[in-house]
Amino acid sequence: MSQGTVLVIGGGVAGALTSLFLKQNGFLPELYERVAAFNDVGVVKQIKGSLALAPNGLKILSQIPGLDKKFLDNGAPLNYLSHRTSHGTILAETPIDIYSLRFGYPLLGIKRTVVLRLLHEELNRQLIPVHFGKSLCALTQSNEHVTVEFQDGTKVIGDYLIGCDGLRSTVRQLLFGSDQPTYTGLTQTIGITDRIGQLDRSEMLNVYGDGGTHFITYPFNSKEACFACTFRESIADTESWRTLSTEQALKFIHECGF
Ligand SMILES: Cc1cc2nc3c(=O)[nH]c(=O)nc-3n(C[C@H](O)[C@H](O)[C@H](O)COP(=O)(O)OP(=O)(O)OC[C@H]3O[C@@H](n4cnc5c(N)ncnc54)[C@H](O)[C@@H]3O)c2cc1C
């Protein structure tokens, strides 16, 4: 017997995985996502790069049969963790291939779009309803039910509601009041390159520059690596996402001292 219908708001990593685990535990999850199509789900649209999935993350994924293998097949295990200064001094170099022996899984470089695709394929495979173009704007609750309203005027009733709608969660704001994150002025330039060069030993390389800048790069498959350069911008500048050309990105990275 079903434990009840759960309305899950937001189809990023959190919403997709929450829905899968709810179903595994006897609930009936229904996922509602504000973007019109899968390609724009999560922070993926803005962040073109990849992420490094820790061994404990893969361990959690393994509780959904076959999902850990799909992630491993679509990513690159990282074998070295290196830290250097931008002047070339090696601060530390640690072989981390031991993670697989010790924890059962490696640190895995994997493309963000692939993470979301694999999770949404699993939602489809398990016939969990995913509704796109549904932007939650209001909610009411009684002792028995919760009713949510979307910007297109439609309403849905469920037994439970879980907000997985990201950093500026509407669910959280409706329940607990206005709660905007504070921009601290840290900016990151992210990209993908097929010039993996010295990373062919599957290394996550961290480089620390003068003035607190940080550069990180690691492969996420046999041909491509991601890179990200973090530096400070004036807090007065507006927080935003913007796309840089290759030339602009390289100029930025050089200006950061790398
Ligand atoms: C630059 C950067 C680098 C990072 N690197 C890593 C890394 O290497 N490893 C790692 O593990 N993590 C990393 N993270 C963190 C990771 O990306 C986030 O923790 C993760 O994406 C959060 O997932 P989420 O599902 O909670 O939120 P999101 O991915 O933001 O998804 C929220 C979803 O909710 C939807 N939504 C929002 N409002 C509504 C609404 N009102 N109604 C319906 N739907 C709504 C949105 O459209 C979106 O699809 C990084 C983050 C950033 C910014």
TrEMBL record:
Which InterPro entries does the UniProt record give? FAD-bd, FAD-dep_Monooxygenase_BioMet, FAD/NAD-bd_sf
What top-level branch of life does the organism fall under?
Eukaryota
Query: Oxidoreductase: is it a keyword of this entry?
Result: yes
All residue ranges annotated as the FAD-binding domain in the record = 5-238
Query: Keyword set for this entry?
Result: Monooxygenase, Oxidoreductase
User: GO molecular function, one example?
Assistant: FAD binding
Q: Say yes or no: keyword Ligase present.
A: no
Q: Please give one Pfam family short name.
A: FAD_binding_3
Protein name per its UniProtKB record: FAD-binding domain-containing protein
